[in-house]
Structure prediction request, 587 residues.
Amino acid sequence: MKINFSKNKLIINISAGFLFCVINIIYIAYLFAFSNNIFLEVYKWSQLLAIIILCLFFIKNSAASFFTALFIYCFYLILVTYFIFTGSELDYPFLARNFKDIPAILPQFLLPAIVTLIAGALSSFSIHRFKNIFKKNFPFILPALILVGMPFITRADKLNNEFIYFIKTVGKKDKAIDYYQDNIYNNLIEQSIDNKKTLEEIRADKAKLPKYLDNIIILQLESLNAFLVSEKNTPNFLEIAKAGIFFPKFYGNGVQTILAQENILCSLPNSFDFNLVKSGGDKKVLCLPEALKFLGYKNIFIKSYDLKFTRTGAFMENIGFGEIHADDIMKKDDPKYLWGWREDIFYKRAFDYLGKNRQDKFNFFYIETGPTNHWQFKTPAGMEETVPFKNPKNHQERLTNTTHLQDQYLKIAWDELNEMFPEKNYTLLILGDHSWPAEIHPDNTFNQKGNFEENFLTSMIIVLGDEKKFKGKIINSRRSEMDIMPSILELLGAPARHNKFSSSFIDELNNEEPDNKEVNKNKILLIQPYSDKYFSIIDYPAKYQYNSEQKIMSIYDLLADPEEKSGRVIKDKNQILDLIKELISVE
Prediction:
């Protein structure tokens, strides 16, 4: 029996074409479920398809042709899927900085990852099958491809294309960013290294310390946006604030948990290129746990999620925590969400462990939690009747709901703490690791992009035992997480280890009538290392905001223009650099 190979080849090609159409219709429909701008996505996708086809004409090896198409397709579809889910383009610095965390993140996005890979593989196979047809008809296809691709080629800087954006961020340089890295960040790192060399100068007469310094606890909440803190959304947070001092507008200097912990624990701003544990700088600089350890405190860090994620466990060990715990204090059947152990059970396990393993006096506990109020901010099943918005219609309502749930669990931590320390011999700090934009500005829903106040402003409470003079105070001056380390050291009577962008706020705590004006005590740095790469300098009410993608400096008056709508714009690069040097030079 003679087999008609030509006929079989035709059937294979027709099947491949049909498969190509079907899988991409499915993929587009899948994206449509998460995006209202599907036509733009199809347009971007079709343009990259044209480029891929053109590239394939120059690949003679069949295997190379297929695997090149497979890689390009899958990678591009990953970029598109990432944009659909986050509202932000994936940039190279973000991928490079978090590459080792992909295995930990991937299970959270297993379904979109599988759909993306299948779409890429089948599309690559289809293009591979039709390669010869494209070659034979190249003179007819080329004009059509040029017509489709011309807007992409000539206006690549204007199009919101994920692939080109990613390529543009590889090795991207900027004079203002370089100045910050070389002359500000590196200088502050060197100062901190010098401080560590003189660690023995940090002294405290523990016999004379008030009892509220017997134990120091930092409770870090996830994604607490200051603009959502209210009696309706966060009643427990505000009730606890009555027992101490409330900072309603408190800046997180960064946009990621591990970066916030550098601000809080090491009083350092963030780098645009790496975090401290990645660079090895965490072993060299002076951070609060090591200073407290030197003063005789027992340091324990407990987290509600994987310690390997962003290398948190290694970071905490390198900066001076003697004990570091997460899953090991939990039980097998304890309820767990995508981003960690549910807070009610986690708090009980954490405080049970701390109660059994603490010293009688002089303990430092850092508790990191956050699975409920974590991106993508979905109300857990069964909790719909307990949140402000039973049928949330947008990102802000979803974020409000999970913020409210996080606040419900906070009361458990507060009760557990007071049961452990009935004599109120503790200093407690409760704050967000960073804010998360609440769509106060249109489409501002993801903290990897944007540089508005809503991206950085969180809130903080400090409770100093049962001291009446510290109860019910509200401090409106603009402070940041970089002020925490020098403030705690000053409380202990030790040198506060200030730098140009951090200072102790203890004088404000002690004032009988604190100055409630919204002013800066020192300039505040806000670093957005992803997407457009912003950094801002807060000298309230002035906000100087540099956008490295657009190469512009916007200057806002936050008192007259709190919504940041009408900033004065400077476009001259030399003028911008001179202004930055004037504002933040540490020489």
In short: Confidence is low (pLDDT under 50) at residues 1-5, 148-159.
